[in-house]
């Protein structure tokens, strides 16, 4: 049915193409045409043309183009939400067909947070290599907000991260294990090597943190607030746990590490000592997250069962399905 404009003329309703939606979502996420084009593997002129074609199709301006930056209009922000849902649904459609035809085959885009990737990926990759040789695993190490955006948009299929996943879009969380936090200090620190220390020792410590955007930073801040300690006052920040450990070894403070990271990070220096909290020790839950109703849900549940088996050798408490 044709639509009628205010002037009385009729304009045939047209449906955006998948390529147009994918291009616009990339621009909405990156706020930069060159970066967006690189992210989806196309040229900048092609991407710009696709976005312009989408605006023409919808008869609305979605993007404000300036010489310095890209601004998404208020309508564009709403369109981006719908576009992500459409792309995710298409991903589920093709995934359902492929999963029914051949489970544990084809591409699987796994997103992993940086405070998990170095410590769990060896076990994950070994599992895939030994048990699912036909699975084309693609690993994306990103912080939680970026992972959740990628999952909602259909760019990622499955996430390995701290639970609950949270975010603006709903997820189906599959718990794998719980792990304790360990306080790490220089070896000459008065707490070095102690076991069973209460949480309130944090009251008198300068706790170093990761930079903003890491969920582990938020968890450390929550723990400090729980005991009334102030954290985050230091201007020293680290982008990753390896750097954070080196700061501790250099005498700039103490920090919290997940138990799965302790052996790896302590092996990088002899200037690190572990302090274990009294039970119940603070910690975090790690698991998988996917889109609710994903066509590959049964496959992901089986994958989680296999992961629990191989991760049981780590210093964690497995959470049964």
What's the SSE blueprint?
Elements: E1 2-4, E2 10-12, H1 18-30, H2 33-40, H3 44-58, E3 63-65, E4 70-72, H4 74-101, E5 106-112, H5 117-131, E6 135-141, H6 144-153, E7 158-163, E8 172-185, E9 195-197, E10 209-210, H7 215-226, E11 237-238, H8 241-249, E12 255-258, H9 259-266, E13 273-277, E14 283-290, H10 297-311, E15 317-318
Parallel strand pairs: 5-6, 5-7, 9-13, 10-11
Antiparallel strand pairs: 1-2, 3-4, 7-14, 8-12, 8-13, 8-14, 8-15
Q: For the record, what is the CATH homologous superfamily label of the largest domain?
A: Periplasmic binding protein-like II
Encode the helix/strand succession as letters: EEHHHEEHEHEHEEEEHEHEHEEHE
- The DSSP helix count reads 10
Q: Which regions are unreliable across 5 or more consecutive residues at pLDDT < 50?
A: 1-10
Radius of gyration equals: 23 Å
Taking the alpha carbons of the first and last residues, their distance comes to: 50 Å
Key features of this structure:
about 325 residues; alpha/beta; Arc Repressor Mutant, subunit A; D-Maltodextrin-Binding Protein, domain 2; two-stranded antiparallel sheet; 15 strands
Question: Can you walk through the features of this model?
Answer:
- By secondary structure, the chain is an alpha/beta fold.
- It folds into 3 domains: 12-82, Arc Repressor Mutant, subunit A; 106-177 and 286-318, Periplasmic binding protein-like II (D-Maltodextrin-Binding Protein, domain 2); 178-283, Periplasmic binding protein-like II (D-Maltodextrin-Binding Protein, domain 2, 3-Layer(aba) Sandwich), CATH 3.40.190.10.
- It contains 10 helices and 15 strands.
- The chain has helices spanning 18-30, 33-40, 44-58, 74-101, 117-131, 144-153, 215-226, 241-249, 259-266, 297-311, and strands spanning 2-4, 10-12, 63-65, 70-72, 106-112, 135-141, 158-163, 172-185, 195-197, 209-210, 237-238, 255-258, 273-277, 283-290, 317-318.
- Strands 5, 6, 7, 8, 9, 12, 13, 14 and 15 form a 9-stranded mixed sheet that branches. Strands 1-2 form a two-stranded antiparallel sheet. The chain has a two-stranded antiparallel ribbon with strand order 3-4.
- α1 (18-30) crosses α2 (33-40) and α1 packs across α4 (74-101).
- The chain is globular, with a radius of gyration of 23 Å.
- The chain starts with a strand and ends with a strand.
- Residues 1-10 have low confidence and may be disordered.
């Amino acid at each position: 049915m044709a639509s009628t404009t205010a002037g009385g003329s009729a304009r045939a309703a047209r449906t955006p193409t998948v390529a147009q939606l994918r291009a616009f979502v990339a621009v909405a996420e990156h706020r930069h045409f060159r970066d967006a084009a690189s992210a989806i593997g196309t040229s900048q002129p092609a991407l710009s043309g696709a976005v312009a074609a989408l605006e023409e199709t919808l008869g609305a301006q979605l993007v404000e183009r300036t010489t310095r930056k890209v601004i998404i209009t208020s309508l564009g922000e709403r369109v981006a939400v719908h576009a992500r849902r459409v792309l995710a649904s298409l991903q589920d459609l093709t995934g359902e067909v492929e999963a029914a035809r051949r489970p544990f085959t084809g591409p699987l885009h796994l997103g992993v947070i940086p405070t998990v990737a170095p410590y769990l990926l060896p076990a994950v990759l070994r599992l895939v290599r030994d048990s699912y040789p036909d699975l084309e695993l693609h690993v994306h190490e990103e912080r939680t907000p970026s992972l959740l955006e990628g999952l909602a948009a259909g760019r990622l299929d499955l996430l390995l991260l701290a639970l609950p996943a949270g975010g603006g879009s709903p997820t189906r969380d599959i718990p794998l294990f719980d792990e304790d936090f360990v306080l790490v200090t220089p070896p000459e620190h008065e707490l070095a090597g102690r076991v069973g220390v209460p949480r309130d020792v944090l009251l008198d410590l300068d706790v170093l943190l990761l930079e903003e955007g890491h969920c582990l930073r938020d968890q450390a801040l929550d723990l400090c607030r729980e005991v009334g300690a102030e954290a985050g006052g230091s201007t020293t920040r680290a982008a990753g746990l390896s750097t954070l450990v080196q700061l501790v070894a250099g005498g700039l403070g103490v920090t919290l590490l997940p138990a799965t990271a302790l052996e790896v990070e302590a092996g990088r220096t002899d200037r690190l000592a572990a302090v274990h909290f009294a039970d119940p020790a603070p910690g975090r839950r790690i698991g998988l997250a996917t889109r609710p109703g994903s066509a590959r849900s049964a496959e992901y549940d089986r994958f989680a069962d296999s992961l629990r088996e191989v991760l049981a050798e780590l210093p964690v408490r497995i959470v049964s399905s």
